Amino acid sequence: MKFEHLVEINDPMNPLLDTLTREQLWHGLVLRAEQPKLFIPHLDACDILERDAGVMRRRLTFGPLVIEDKVTLTPLQEVHYDVPAQGDIAASTLRMVIEAPTSAMLLVRFCYDDGMGEHVDQANAMYDEFKKSAYEEADIDTVRVLRQLAGQGKLATTLLN
Predict the structure, then answer these.
(1) I want to staple 9 with a disulfide (CB 3.0 to 4.6 A). Which of 74, 87, 106, 119 is the partner?
(2) What is the pLDDT of residues 95-144, one digit of tens each?
(3) Is residue 40 packed enough to be buried (19+ CB in 10 Å), middle (13-18) or exposed (0-12)?
(4) Which residues contact 135 (CB under 8 A, 6 or more apart)?
């Protein structure tokens, strides 16, 4: 299943949204990669196994399930998560791309590819729709947490840029 959607960060037509700078948004997306427990409540542990210029390898622990992935950072533009096939888990990717259609508007495009292709049978298609909804809710929640952190002044710096 391939799926993408946009989450609005800044919109000059919506005064109810607190404005974030591109830098604050970037620092928040990097923080999500470095400290995912702030964003994923059911995550038990995240160990950074390796860091190199703009790349980190991580081990995520969800109870008995352990997943290793690679995160590639393109400063102020994109965070790319790559999960290689492992055990019963198929290869998958997630890209979080910062977009600025105008100087006052800021968006994040979330692009998912679970490596499974599109399903034609109804049961799997329904499951794909459930996953899309869950991904979208998680991404909206990520932005909610980023707004909270920005409001607390915690998006000024990150460990890896």
Answers:
(1) 106
(2) 999 999 988 899 999 999 988 776 666 777 888 899 999 999 999 999 99
(3) middle
(4) 3, 5, 110, 112
Half-sphere exposure of 160 (CA within 13 A, CB side): 21
Render the burial of 57-71: b for 16+ CB within 10 Å, e for the rest. ebebeeeeeebebbb
pTM for this prediction: 0.90
Distance of CA 46 to CAs 8, 67, 103, 114, 145, Å?
Answer: 28, 10, 36, 21, 18
**Tokens at 17, concatenated:** 């949204």
Query: For residue range 24-66, what is the model confidence (pLDDT) as tens digits?
Result: 999 999 999 999 999 998 999 999 999 999 999 999 999 999 9
Name the residue type at position 79: V
For the record, the structure tokens of 112 come out as 């998912």
Q: Would you tell me how many other CB atoms lie within 10 Å of the CB of residue 41? A: 7
